[in-house]
Design a protein that fits this description.
Layout (H helix, E strand, L loop, with lengths): L2 H66 L3 E5 L4 E3 L9 E6 L4 H7 L2 E2 L4 E11 L3 E8 L2 E9 L5 E11 L4 E6 L3 E3 L6 E6 L2
Antiparallel strand pairs: 1-3, 1-11, 2-10, 4-9, 5-8, 5-11, 6-7, 6-9
Length: about 200
Amino acid sequence: MTNTKFHQLESSHNTAYNTLNQKIMDLKQHSEIIENDTLLNVNKEFQNIQKNVSMALADLELHIKDNSRKVAVTSCVSNEKTYNTGTSIKFDNVRTSIEIKNLSTFKSTGKFSCEVEGLYHISVYIVSYTARSEYSIYKNNNKLTTTYSDTAGHIQTSAGAVVMKMNVGDTIFVIPDFNMHVYADHWSCITTAMIK
């Protein structure tokens, strides 16, 4: 073998070696890029899962808190008087209040405003001597139920009760359908209680 052929063969071998070496380095670099991209994607996916789990836990805690929350108020009329047709009866003598924040509005207007969404039981009893004693329980200006008693001038108690789903901001109030004398103190009261 001549020197020239040897050099050609050596040169060809070196070129092939360098090309192969470069391809191995390119493949290694490409593999590292893919590995880094995969690691970044896995990290992002993990962060999304972590965020979703945190949000789900916070939502669950809120539902547990709402389901364990107790809301109730019992309040009676403080001043005996005749209420005119269409006037809300004011149950302004609060006897029991649990988790009710806006009692002042309730006491001044006679309207209970729901602060926590849920299923509520509302019961009302009123003592009157009005010959035709009739009043209705309203939710957001919609009549739910009416009680009636014809006392013929004698003192008598009439009572009404409803169970309903209430949303935040819904109001409950009681209005006489005719002018009606209402006895005060423990004789005429309303109870609103969240049952679920």
